Each structure stands twice: as C-alpha cells, then as structure tokens.
Amino acid sequence: MRNGLSRRLPRARSRPLAVTGGVVVAFWLVIVVAAPLLAPHDPLAQDLPRLAAPGAGHWLGTDELGRDVLSRVLYGARVSIPLALLLVAMSLLVGGVLGAYAGFFGRWVDETVMRIADLVFAFPTVILAMVVAAALGASLHHAVLAVLVVAWPSYARVTRGLVMGLRNREFVLSGRLLGFSAWRSLRVDILPNVIGPLLVLATLDIGTATLLLSGLSFLGLGAKPPTAEWGAMVAAGTQRFDKWWIGVFPGLAVLTVVLAFTFLGDWLRDTLDPGTARTIRAEKERVA
User: What is the dihedral sign for C-alpha 105, 107, 112, 116?
Assistant: First the structure.
C-alpha cells in the first residue's frame, strides 16, 4: 500500500492544478503563522487616511475607518482558515464515529443516526446554518457550531456506506472469529480502508467551510466588529461599491482558498481513491 501510494504521489508534478493548489495553500498557511510579521499596520488601528485607494503607501487601500485593508486581509486568514480546519476536523470526527457505529452495528443505531442525518439533509444547508447561528447568537464560535450541525451528516453517510461494504469482508470476519472486539475490528481492519475517501471529502470541505463561515459573517451572524474577518470585510465593501478595494481583496482571498483546497481534493481523490476517480471520469465521458 505504501509503495503504491509513494509511486502515485510524484504525479502531482504533472498535475498543474494540484501544484497550484498546494502552493496557494502553503502560501496562506505561512500567512496564518506570520501575519503579525508581514502586516504593515495594526489591523484594528484607525489612524490612516480614510478610503484611500490602493497605492504605494497602502498596497490594498484603506477602509471607511482608516484601517489598512492589506493588514486586515492578512489577519483575516488567521481567523477564517484555522476555524475552517477546526470545523472540518470536528465534522469528520463526529460524523465519522457516528457513521462507523451505524454501519457496523446496524439496527437501531443505524436507524437513529441516519434519521437524524436525513432530518438535517431535509433543509437547505445555508438556510439551516443561518437559523442555528441566529438562534445561538451572532459570534464566530456560534457560526462554527452552526456549520458543524449541517456538515457532520455528510461524513456520517459516507462512513456508514464504506463500513457496510467492509464489515462482511473475509478479513473482517476472520478477525471477529479470532476474538477481536467490535472496537478493534473498526480500528484495525476497517479504519485504514475508509480513511482515504474521508480525507478526500475533508480536503474538499475545507474550502466549503471557509465559504460558509464567511457567508455567515457576511450576513452578520459570524464575526463581530472590529474583528478582521473576510466575510465581514466583504459585507463592508457592499456598502461602498465605488470603493471597490474594500470588498474585492477579501473576496479574492476567499476565492483562492476555496479553489486551492478544491484542486488538492481532486488530486487526493485520484491518489487515494482511484476507483472513484475512474468512475467520475467515465461518467463525464459518457455525458460528453
């Protein structure tokens, strides 16, 4: 397995979109760590000329309160990206555990978990996240919880399907006959065979989580002023369309993060789950 994976990993060099995605992700991760060193101004300071256009003094201009847009975009990465990573990790953990137990044990466990998941799927994702965030109160932490509520069922359903396809395989049944507990069978025999597709889904969802969190902040249900957060910055830009730089640059930041993780997710799917990749390519060719 490792040798096969190591042979497939170098193919990233021949995948320009994968390389581009990796470079962009690495760039933003560096920003997350080094934003205090790279930002030319305090992102909360209001001591600059107001609504100054991008130029030599302020590369991305200033907003209506005299704050440097570049500094706020850099510090916004420290909010949006770590929260998106945390959200995806929590969704993977909650949905993966529930889905694994539902798929392995079946019966009432399966019915309970899947009916709750179906209830969540019955509502549009964004609308349900808005309702939950509004009920909890506007804050970034509540926005994360709201997106978690709508995100975990996808992982539960995928994990359940994968586990159900593996639980009656010979190597799993052999372990059970040898006296393996259900937990050990899940951990030793099944988990290594489902982690690949789940990592692919998680990588793709990082961009989606960033977009959802920014959307909630855009609607006033996430970050509160004066926090430097991309969605809130875009919302501020909509109040002054003539001062385009206020909303365009944080919007571009969201766009690059979403596209980068999408490119990486596509590559990981081809690398870790080639069967699914072949099915998708065959379906595209059939439709074409």
Answer: positive
Lookup result for tokens 């907003």: 63
Beta-bridge partners for 68: 62
Q: At 103, list the tokens.
A: 């798929």
Domain coverage including residue 236: 77-287
User: What is the rounded CA–CA span in Å between residue 149 and residue 143?
Assistant: 10
pTM for the model: 0.85
Which residue type occupies 125?
Answer: T
Domains: count for the chain: 1
Q: How far apart are CA 35 and CA 49, in angstroms?
A: 22
Question: For residue range 162-192, what is the model confidence (pLDDT) as tens digits?
Answer: 888 887 777 777 776 676 777 777 777 788 8
Decide if 61 is inside a domain: no
Of 35, 34, 75, 69, the residue nearest 55 (C-alpha) = 69
The alpha carbon of 73 is separated from its chain's Cα centroid by a whole number of angstroms, namely 19
Residue 49 lies in a domain: no
Q: In terms of Cα–Cα distance, which of 256, 213, 207, 204 is closest to 232?
A: 213
Containing H/E element for 53?
Answer: none
CATH of the domain at 146: 1.10.3720.10
Distance separating alpha carbons of residues 129 and 149, to the nearest angstrom = 7
